Amino acid sequence: MAEQVRGAASPARYGLTDDRAEAQLRSLGWWGDGGPEPACIEVLTTLSRSADPDLALRGLDRLREADETGWRKLAEGLREDPSLRGRLIGVFGTSSALADFLVGCPHEWRRLARDKGTKKERYVDILLRSVQDAGTTLTHGAAEQALRMAYRGVLLEIAAADLGHLVESGLERPSYTEITDKLTALAEAALTTGLAVAHAELKVTDPDTARLAVIAMGKCGGHELNYVSDVDVVFVGEGDLPLATRLASTVMRVVGKACFEVDAALRPEGKAGALVRTLEGHTAYYRKWARTWEFQALLKARPVAGDPELGRQYAEMVDSLVWTAAERENFVADVQQMRRRVEKHVPSELADRELKLGRGGLRDVEFAVQLLQLVHGRADPELRSPSTMEALNALGARGYVGRADAAELEISYEFLRTVEHRLQLRRLRRTHLFPDHHETAELRVLARAIGIKAERGRSEGEVLVADFRRHAQRIRRLHEKLFYRPLLQSVASVPSEALRLTTKQAATRLAALGYAAPDGALQHIKALTAGVSRRASIQHTLLPVLLDLLADTPDPDGGLLAYRKVSEALEDTPWYLRVLRDEGAVVERLACLLGTARLVPDLLVRAPEVLQLLGDPAALAGREPEEVAKSLRAAVRRQPGLKAAVAAARSLRRHEMLRVAAADLLGLLDVRAVCEALSTVWVAVLQGALAAALRKRTAETGTAPAKIAVIGMGRLGGAELGYGSDADVLFVCEANDGAGDEEAVRFALIVAKTVQEMLGAPSADPPLHVDADLRPEGRGGPLVRTLDSYRAYYARWSQVWEAQALLRARFVAGDEELGTRFLAMVDPIRYPDQGLDPARVREVRRMKARVQDERMPKGADPTLHTKLGRGGLADVEWTVQLLQLRHAHAVPELRTTSTPAALAVLAESGYVDAEDAASLTEAWLLATHVRNASMLVRGKAVDQVPSSGRPLAAVARIMGYGEETDPGEFLDFYRRTTRRAHAIVERVFYED
Predict the structure, then answer these.
(1) Which intervals hold domain PII-uridylyltransferase/Glutamine-synthetase adenylyltransferase (predicted)?
(2) How do beta strands 302-306 and 210-216 pair?
């Protein structure tokens, strides 16, 4: 059996490609004439799993040569102890620098027999003992050399614990944070030891003579050091400052030569400033002179060595300053600008490979996390951790960052830090540069050192490159999402006291902001932030900003109440608060809508998906009406029955009405576009409901004896509907082959009533009233007539008001061919060949006067009534329609159902002066806009312009009058515009 094993293997089988491999294996006693020694196969298997088997084997052979005696014991340990085998081979296969250290100090391999854990006290004891053993005089040369060897020995332990599991499956895999904790603890121990050496070298026997505290900054302060890092520090001294400065300089020199560079450039005034300052000196500088980036750096400040009381006092001072830094002017913009400056310093040819500073690099994560901490940590102590990973977890747990975003950032950050660690371990050099994609051998070794395996025809290196790019892209995407989040600037501008929302402070601030009922507002705030849930935490973040935004609206109290209603209604909608938190524009626009229009919250709780469109103005306002209608008809057509079809039509109309209303309130749609959109969706609802009713009735009777057409009248026919408009219609039918008129009418009547009843059923939405009162004989006449019946009626009984009403008639639903024939049939009636004779003109004028007198509400201000008031909708429309009746026979272009379009033709054809037509159009559009605005503000259809109070302020704001403008200016403008239009109507409507 042993012979078969030997014959079946060669060094290449174990990943060894060096020509010297077999000779080295023989010298180690692991290879015989026939192949591997059976007792050593497990060792060779572990060797094959190492990042670079050739490097590992070469290091082991050098270690044997350095200590032949000790090798025999080590060789036995490698065969029998998987823990030792995994740790030692893991190190030798990854780090040539640590292999050199072991060859120079062969006995140090005994450190790897077991994992000794992370204890700063143990590390301090090891390092201090090493320098004390170097000699009683502690001359700096001997001390530095001793410290260097002890430091490398502990670093070897940490690396072995980090790498062993990759080559020996039975070993526990340490987490990323466990390794960084160990590296940080080792650095702290080195600083403590360096300070002890400095005291001995300068013969300082009484530490109180020159008290010195070493404050860790950067990665050391955050417990997240690399294998090779500069350690950023700040020195605080008391007492003999010159002596304290010499102590600090000695610490920097000793530790710098033995372990790592100690960088004090983050101190006040940088390298130009004093190396050591008193606590008072630090405090005075930070309060008066510090720049934004310095507070960002202080986020990680932590005492790690020296005088503990002085360190504690410094930490308390820093804490009081750091967590108010976000209130500084332009704080968020300064941090963002700093990140852009750092990024620009990366050479363009290296930007895609720079792990630390490049796009999608470690700094992207760190800057985003620190900015979020500094802004939100003012009111939430849970975020006040110097560790990037801990802070990221807290941001996710507390709701400031989405759980998925936090988890993805954590995974990608850990991946890049692991890559950085492995790159640095190779030669123990400070590097953050990912290998070029052409360096296949180096990529392969790096991938194996991370634990990446080949997959699906891709080598380890190719998988590593793909993973690196994927993580970098993810980090950049999330960095831009979080770091440039508009909400950050809004939160930062809120004073810290206001963020805490305590009863006394909040009530005073709410009153100052303009809330009429601060106590009621406080009840809403308490209800929204009650408890310790993630939802409450997010609301706690949003509300200070939202309160400010609502204060700028016409009705802050109503807006806050509406926000509470919406939030409670959507509390189980998983994305609701996430959208508000992540999309600053959504919060701003939602506040504008809720504090202005009562109709919006009622619609929003039943069409919450529109909220997501608020962040994208193009999506909110950019849908073509015909595209909307097409999708609505398709959705209704897919429903299995009439009730489902009508429910779907209602739902889609609600969605579209809210979308249009939001775009209207935000100034993204003009009044013509609003009317067109609302009219188109109403038509689509009618089409869908009619088709569903026809299917249902046909299924019940087994036949369809009639075809039906719906003719739009009034504002529906003119495509000029508002938010509260009814749908004025006529129902026309015609018998299909084999059916009589009586049967056709019966069938069509049931269908028409079904449409009216189903659409007009009570609902929380604005009503869907299908009004057929403009039919022949009005309410007393039949709801449905055949085409021939309409023809007979209009030929014999038609009155001038019916001809006027038919000017707006257009086909909207049902059988298009029948609708087209109906319109052709009524054309001679609405466009009489010789126009109107004088008697009928007088009749129209008398009718207008009678309507004006009878329908104007009692007590209404005729200068502010949008429909029947002077220069209002009726004034302009009656004038246009009279001119159409008189002249459309001669001017085919006047045969339009649109009021503004007809005015344009009247001006072109000379029937109305161009300036008069422009004034009438302006008045009509203004009245339409104000009518729509009043509906949005009050939540119900109204024709009277508000004359005072918050409704007036809200309508004025919608009409473009800013917060600083007196709403009375809007009233003056409305009256002035309609007064001018009324004068024109008086002249044009009544001229001979």
Answers:
(1) 336-483, 846-988
(2) antiparallel
